[in-house]
């Protein structure tokens, strides 16, 4: 089985190169189902210990035992990429999965977002995460489980609250605001700035000694706390930055899921179709697995309250390649993330062909089909992806007494926060921040609501 | 195009060394236990407790701990994108019917997984004793409580086969073989036998008599309070004594002994004569639980009302009991309506207390009182035994 799979993978790679796929080398590893489950839970093969992963682990085991979830493959982009295949899968399934992985590898090397994060983090996330886990283990030995857990409670709760536009290694704010440059005066600027007969404007006030902190609302909460927490110890800052680094690594995967899975599905279908070295029956069972993966909803169902990213991405890429050619598809692959991909390439015909709709649930649990309007469909697909899937919360002010003031952009999110959960998170943060923490949002009737811890 | 060929491996089972998921799951459970521990009194008061001594665990249904994140309010009104045939306005999923909702357990969201935490009674009682800061009871110090018993002491070269100490015997053989040339594997000289000696040991048996007034005036809620109290009183004693025997008595104008399972279900009608139960208790002490060999306890729960013509009999009987027993506890589950009035039973016990007999009395109106009563009883008993 291993030799056969190894031989197929070699042949698939030769074919992939011939078809123009360009990727960092991929290390395949056959692992048991138990490890696959853990990777699905932790996001990484080795990751810091935290009790919340234990809960997810049990949920995953329950789902798997009920047959709701089956994991075929996990792939970690990097240089080399690491792909884990399940040793219990059939040869046909693993051949399909290997072809799928090659598609992912090509996407990860060529997509701009992936490339940027790859460049910042270096291509070895697995080693990085293992190093974080080891440092955290050492901290547990030195400072005790309770203390380390308190820090991880806070850091992991804020996992998605990073600024993905900032570099991995981010410098602190400049000590003083840059002095506004004196504009060269000329006749036009004089006329532009004031009307005739208007008194000359007062010269701008001298810049403040210390600019307010943060100088602008800061949504990189993990970084801000690590950088400016008044009473954090060095190892605690380290934990926050570790979580932030891993979170940044996960972002491209999150933000390009539809494109990435679609691209990989497109390529596994194409590689298998053109792989003349595969025996006929193996090809058939592989293609059977393929159609199971990219189908819109489970067999026997009439509709699904979710859009299968494999199906959506696959359909869009097939359409793009057919209409505009592979070269254009590769440009799209380079330039877009899911937002651009869905908004620019999901058109009315495709939405109708795929029977996409939006739905709305009522509090009593009844769900109705709402609209088939293209814009609504696009936005409904993208809605869970905004701001890394988290409410928009930013540091508004670090007060002189050390109080951390957070603001929730409830206007942008359309409603307030779940107050009970938010209070709990504030409690986590407070235990590490050690000074008061306040959060401003709105309640159920849009009335202002301030939570403190 | 690639600098080195891709690799495929199937060895390196580092991940088999331990399961990270299981590790974190165990830590989660540990945290749940701690949470349960801090809320133990209210948790235990709520549910029906299993009091069988052979079943030394309590099952507490718990939810998973949630690691909170910031989330938008009102997640129940879901909306999103889907796929399939249908027209706007069409119902895709009907509202769950009333039956379905009930089947989904109270307050459970869809897909919520719960699990049952098995707590050892011993562990619970241990926590409680720490939480309530209760003293450990001392068995009554009295020469009459000492009873002779065989205890192990020392080894000899002769003895009954059944008491052969194989470990010692092998040791001897090893020592001998090390010194001899061409030694035998075992000889009779190697054999070592455990020896028994007759010594007086303090009696560590206890007998607990629970007496419950089941006359018409005792309500279900009151019996429940009494049950909770009895349960913890019993657990507290079990902590101390190796062997605790229990007797359950219920009385109206007459008294009967019941097996534990039926005891709390018993209801009766008519009048109340506490002396009937006390007489049976006296009888038990005389026949089954000789106070010279048993640390004997009596706990009595009643609404405090007793037939006026039974007063003298009851007083005499309970005074005789209190003189023999390690401790007599009385809980009055009268409910708030009676709180202002001093009942006959309360008067009786106050009188005994004045005579410096080992008795205690407490009023139980709510579950919270159970904890106060438990605390008070064990403090007093601790003091009485000291």
Task: Describe the 3D structure.
The complex is a heterodimer of chains A (453) and B (386). Chain A has helices at residues 2-18, 33-42, 51-65, 91-110, 112-121, 125-143, 145-157, 187-193, 221-228, 234-255, 257-274, 280-293, 309-324, 326-335, 338-345, 348-353, 374-382, 410-413, 419-433, and strands at residues 26-31, 73-76, 81-86, 303-304, 356-361, 367-371, 393-398, 404-408, 437-442, 448-452. Chain A starts with a helix and ends with a strand. Chain A is α/β, with parallel strands linked by helices and 453 residues long. Chain A contains 19 helices and 10 strands. In chain A, β7 (393-398) and β8 (404-408) form a beta hairpin. Among the domains of chain A are: 125-169 and 212-253 and 391-452, no CATH class; 294-388, no CATH class. The longest helix of chain A has 22 residues, at 234-255. The radius of gyration of chain A is 26 Å and the shape is globular. In chain A, the strands form 3 sheets. In chain A, strands 7-8-9-10 form a 4-stranded mixed beta sheet, with helices on one face. A 3-stranded mixed beta sheet of chain A has the order 1-3-2. Chain B has 386 residues and is an alpha/beta fold. Chain B has 3 domains: 20-64 and 113-128, no CATH class; 145-202, no CATH class; 205-385, von Willebrand factor, type A domain (Rossmann fold, 3-Layer(aba) Sandwich), CATH 3.40.50.410. Helix content of chain B is 36%, strand content 23%. Chain B has 11 helices and 13 strands. Chain B has helices at residues 20-38, 40-46, 98-103, 121-131, 166-179, 220-240, 260-263, 274-287, 311-324, 344-354, 367-385; strands at 7-9, 57-63, 79-84, 91-93, 114-120, 146-156, 193-202, 205-213, 243-251, 255-258, 295-302, 327-332, 359-363. In chain B, the strands form 3 sheets. Chain B has a 6-stranded mixed beta sheet with strand order 10-9-8-11-12-13, sandwiched between helices. In chain B, strands 2-5 form a two-stranded antiparallel sheet. A two-stranded antiparallel sheet of chain B has the order 6-7. In chain B, a hairpin with a 3-residue loop joins β9 (243-251) and β10 (255-258). In chain B, α4 (121-131) packs across α6, α6 (220-240) runs parallel beside α11 (367-385) and α8 packs parallel to α9. The longest helix of chain B is centred in the middle third of the chain and has 21 residues, at 220-240. Chain B is flat, with a radius of gyration of 31 Å. Chains A and B meet through α1, β1, α2, α3 and α7 of A and β1, α1, β3 and β4 of B. β1 of chain A pairs parallel with β1 (7-9) of chain B, so a sheet runs across the interface.
């Amino acid at each position: 089985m291993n030799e056969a799979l190894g031989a197929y993978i070699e042949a698939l790679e030769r074919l992939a190169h011939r078809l123009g796929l360009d990727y960092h080398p991929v290390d395949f590893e056959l692992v048991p189902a138990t490890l696959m489950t853990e990777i699905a839970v932790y996001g990484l093969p080795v990751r810091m210990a935290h009790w919340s992963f234990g809960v997810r682990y049990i949920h995953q085991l329950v789902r798997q035992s009920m047959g709701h979830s089956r994991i075929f493959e996990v792939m970690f982009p990097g240089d080399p990429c690491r792909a884990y295949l399940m040793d219990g899968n059939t040869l046909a399934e693993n051949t399909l999965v290997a072809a799928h992985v090659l598609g992912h590898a090509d996407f990860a090397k060529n997509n701009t977002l992936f490339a940027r994060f790859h460049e910042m983090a270096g291509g070895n996330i697995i080693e990085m995460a293992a190093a974080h886990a080891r440092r955290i283990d050492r901290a547990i030995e030195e400072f005790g489980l309770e203390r380390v857990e308190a820090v991880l409670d806070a850091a992991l709760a804020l996992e998605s609250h990073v600024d993905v536009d900032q570099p991995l290694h981010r410098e602190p704010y400049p000590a003083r605001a840059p002095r506004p440059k004196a504009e060269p005066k000329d006749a036009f600027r004089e006329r532009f700035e004031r009307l005739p007969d208007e008194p000359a404007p007062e010269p701008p006030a001298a810049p403040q000694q210390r600019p307010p902190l943060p100088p602008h609302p800061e949504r990189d909460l993990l970084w801000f706390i690590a950088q400016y927490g008044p009473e954090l110890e060095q190892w605690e800052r380290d934990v926050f930055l570790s979580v932030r680094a891993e979170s940044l690594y996960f972002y491209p995967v999150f933000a390009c899921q539809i494109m990435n899975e679609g691209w990989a599905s497109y390529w596994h279908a194409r590689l298998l179709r053109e792989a003349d070295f595969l025996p006929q029956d193996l090809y058939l069972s592989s293609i059977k697995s393929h159609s199971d993966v990219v189908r819109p909803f489970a067999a026997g169902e009439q509709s699904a309250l979710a859009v299968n990213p494999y199906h959506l991405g696959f359909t869009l890429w097939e359409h793009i390649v057919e209409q505009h050619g592979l070269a254009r598809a590769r440009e799209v692959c380079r330039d877009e993330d899911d937002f651009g991909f869905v908004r620019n390439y999901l058109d009315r015909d495709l939405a109708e062909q795929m029977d996409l709709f939006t739905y709305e649930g009522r509090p009593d649990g009844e769900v109705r089909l709402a609209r088939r309007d293209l814009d609504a469909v696009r936005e409904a697909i993208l809605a869970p992806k905004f701001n890394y899937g988290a409410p928009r919360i930013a540091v508004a002010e670090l007060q002189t007494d050390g109080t951390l003031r957070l603001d929730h952009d409830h206007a942008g999110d359309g409603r307030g926060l779940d107050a009970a959960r938010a209070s709990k998170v504030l409690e986590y943060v407070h235990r590490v921040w050690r000074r008061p923490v306040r959060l401003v949002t709105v309640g159920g009737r849009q009335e202002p609501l301030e939570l403190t811890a | 195009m690639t600098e080195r060929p891709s690799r495929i491996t199937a060895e390196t089972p580092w991940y088999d060394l331990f399961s990270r998921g299981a590790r974190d799951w165990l830590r989660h459970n540990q945290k749940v236990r701690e949470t349960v521990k801090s809320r133990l009194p209210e948790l235990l008061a709520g549910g029906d407790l299993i009091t069988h001594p052979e079943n030394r665990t309590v099952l507490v249904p718990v939810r998973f701990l949630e690691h909170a994140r910031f989330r938008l309010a009102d997640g129940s009104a879901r909306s999103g994108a889907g796929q399939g045939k249908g027209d706007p306005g069409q119902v895709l999923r009907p509202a769950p019917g009333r039956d379905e909702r009930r089947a989904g357990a109270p307050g459970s969201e869809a897909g919520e997984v719960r699990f049952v935490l098995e707590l050892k009674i011993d562990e619970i009682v241990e926590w409680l004793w720490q939480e309530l800061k209760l003293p450990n009871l001392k068995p009554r110090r009295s020469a009459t409580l000492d009873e002779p018993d065989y205890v192990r002491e020392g080894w000899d070269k002769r003895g009954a086969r059944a008491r052969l100490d194989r470990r010692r015997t092998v040791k001897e053989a090893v020592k001998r073989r090390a010194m001899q040339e061409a030694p035998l594997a075992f000889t009779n000289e190697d054999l070592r036998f455990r020896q028994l000696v007759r010594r007086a040991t303090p009696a560590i048996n206890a007998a607990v008599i629970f007496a419950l007034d089941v006359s018409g005036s005792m309500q279900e809620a009151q019996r429940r309070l009494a049950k909770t109290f009895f349960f913890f009183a019993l657990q507290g004693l079990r902590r101390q004594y190796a062997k605790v025997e229990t007797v359950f008595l219920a009385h109206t104008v007459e008294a009967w002994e019941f097996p534990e399972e039926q005891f709390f279900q018993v209801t009766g009608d008519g009048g109340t004569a506490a002396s009937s139960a006390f007489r049976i208790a006296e009888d038990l002490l005389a026949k089954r639980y000789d106070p010279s060999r048993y640390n004997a306890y009596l706990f009595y729960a009643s609404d405090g009302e007793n037939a006026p013509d039974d007063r003298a009999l009851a007083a005499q009987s309970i005074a005789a009991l209190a003189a023999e027993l390690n401790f007599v506890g009385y809980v009055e589950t009268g409910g708030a309506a009676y709180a202002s009035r001093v009942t006959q039973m309360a008067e009786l016990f106050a009188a005994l207390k004045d005579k410096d007999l080992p008795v205690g009395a407490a009023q139980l109106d709510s579950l919270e009182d159970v904890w106060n009563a438990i605390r008070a009883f064990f403090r007093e008993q601790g003091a009485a035994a000291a």
